[in-house]
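Example 9 (inverse folding). The structure is encoded as follows.
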């Protein structure tokens, strides 16, 4: 869970909730394709806030999943990068404010 622009953001199951202390909104990204079975994001993790942007990792709901770096700018979602796939995963993410860098730790056969 994290806070950005007066809202608290947190995941519940495969949804992202935005709460302002009174009202709750579901701001989960839309489906990724138009063919059944639909590919969607789920398992949101590693919330990081920097410069009015909310960054996080999200896995696709496919059997051989992909984990993407996505961000929310307050009005829409943006996919920034494919981070890992299948058996690998991102275990942590952080912002380096001095050098303006976003770092993540990838757990794989050889950790990166």
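The amino acid assigned to each position is listed next.
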């Amino acid at each position: 869970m994290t806070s950005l622009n007066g809202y608290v953001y947190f995941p519940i199951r495969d949804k992202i909730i935005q709460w302002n202390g009174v009202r709750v909104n579901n701001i989960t990204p839309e489906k990724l394709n138009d063919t059944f079975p639909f590919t969607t994001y789920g398992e949101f993790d590693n919330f990081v806030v920097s410069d009015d942007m909310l960054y996080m990792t999200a896995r696709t709901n496919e059997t051989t999943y992909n984990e993407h770096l996505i961000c929310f700018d307050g009005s829409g979602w943006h996919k920034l990068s494919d981070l890992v796939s299948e058996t690998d995963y991102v275990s942590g993410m952080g912002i380096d404010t001095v050098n303006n860098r976003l770092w993540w730790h990838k757990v794989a056969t050889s950790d990166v």
